């Protein structure tokens, strides 16, 4: 993964992110890219946009890098052509389900991991 946008290069791109297999209380959103999946899906496969967060290797990273507190869900089939994806700053991520907003920030140590991987992190906007 390269570049400031945080998206994947064409040769690294996965077809799409896992779609949540349940829409109950077990849904979580990545604090960096806002991808929405279940806790178990993050634990088993990590975040397709943020593999450097190693959520599939360390259960604590899933808890630290995701939240159950988010607002709304949008499904994107072609983020590069979606005005909503551009407005939400997720137009360079892979197709999948995303939250409209999270209220928590990614912990500082993980923000450092973003910097180390030349990936931009945008903290949530404050009301």
From TrEMBL:
InterPro entries: RPABC4/Spt4, Spt4, Spt4/RpoE2_Znf, Spt4_sf. Keywords: Nucleus, Transcription. Pfam families: Spt4. Coiled coil: none annotated. GO terms for biological process: regulation of DNA-templated transcription; transcription elongation by RNA polymerase II; transcription elongation-coupled chromatin remodeling. Residues 27-103 form the Spt4/RpoE2 zinc finger domain. It is found in: Nucleus. One of its GO terms (cellular component) is DSIF complex. One of its GO terms (molecular function) is zinc ion binding. The keyword Nucleus applies. The keyword Nucleus applies. SUPFAM superfamilies: RNA polymerase subunits. It comes from the Eukaryota. Belongs to the SPT4 family. May regulate transcription elongation by RNA polymerase II. May enhance transcriptional pausing at sites proximal to the promoter, which may in turn facilitate the assembly of an elongation competent RNA polymerase II complex. This is Transcription elongation factor SPT4 homolog. It comes from Hordeum vulgare subsp. vulgare.
